[in-house]
Amino acid sequence: MYTYNAQAEQDKFVLHVLQHKQNGYFLEIGSNHPITINNTYLLEKKYNWKGIMVEYDASFLPLYKEHRNNSIHVINDATMIDYKTLFNINNVPSSVDYLQIDLEVNNGSTLKTLEKLNNEVFDTYKFATVTFEHDIYHTNFNNTREKSRAIFKNRGYVCVFEDIHNLNPEYMYEDWYVHPDIVDMKYVNQLKHNNNKHYVYNNLNQKTINWKSIEY
């Protein structure tokens, strides 16, 4: 078994839900470093996935070309991309295996990007698994968490783990979803059931789960 590379083992979540699928496809928005604390590095390198990496910081491009040559590198502001055109010119499959959105909540880019995806591609494309960083622990800019949840719910996504935290229950920062049309919901429902016991409550009187406690 490989060592998971993502900060909160998002790659582990994706691989377990998709039964360690080979040759998958991802859209990684907010790629940052191509290896360190990267959610798709293991998928590409060990499971032969490919996809589109979206990153604003052009300084990462040489590293992408060196270490992530199976994927497409888009150096641009995620809020300014025409996703319908991007998907069309790159022949993105209608069922995408993984969507990551990890941007800056406090400047609105996270929610604006999700809204663009909702308006431009969600009618045509579905994402089997999604990890969405809402960073509610330090900001509720434009009500990002609740608006994002409403969008995903309206599109039929199921939240498997809500308000993921890392060590401190006050630091809730991500929601993880699946689309029931393209995953094994028997497994997902059992996964949710088995992990209900790991939720705790914080000072906001909201339940949260430490990613380290998740049992697969």
Helix content: 25-40%
Distance separating the two termini: 14 Å
Tally of helical runs:
7
Strand order, main sheet: write it out.
3-2-1-4-5-7-6-9-8
Level-2 CATH architecture of the domain at 10-160? 3-Layer(aba) Sandwich
Mean pLDDT: 96
CATH T-level fold name of the domain at 10-160? Rossmann fold
> In angstroms, what is the radius of gyration?
16 Å
Sheet with the most strands, sense and barrel status: 9 strands, mixed
The number of E-state strands comes to 9
Q: Please state the overall shape, judged from the principal axes of the Cα atoms.
A: globular
Specify the CATH homologous superfamily of the domain at 10-160. Vaccinia Virus protein VP39
Low-confidence stretches: none
Question: What's the CATH C level of the domain at 10-160?
Answer: Alpha Beta
Give the helix/strand class. Answer: alpha/beta
How would you classify the quaternary structure? single chain
Strand content: 15-25%
The run of helices and strands is HEHEHEHEHEHEEHEE
Structural account:
29% of the residues lie in helices and 24% in strands. The chain is of the alpha/beta class. The protein has a domain at 10-160: Vaccinia Virus protein VP39 (Rossmann fold). Helix 5 runs parallel beside helix 6 (144-154). The two termini are 14 Å apart. The mean pLDDT is 96.
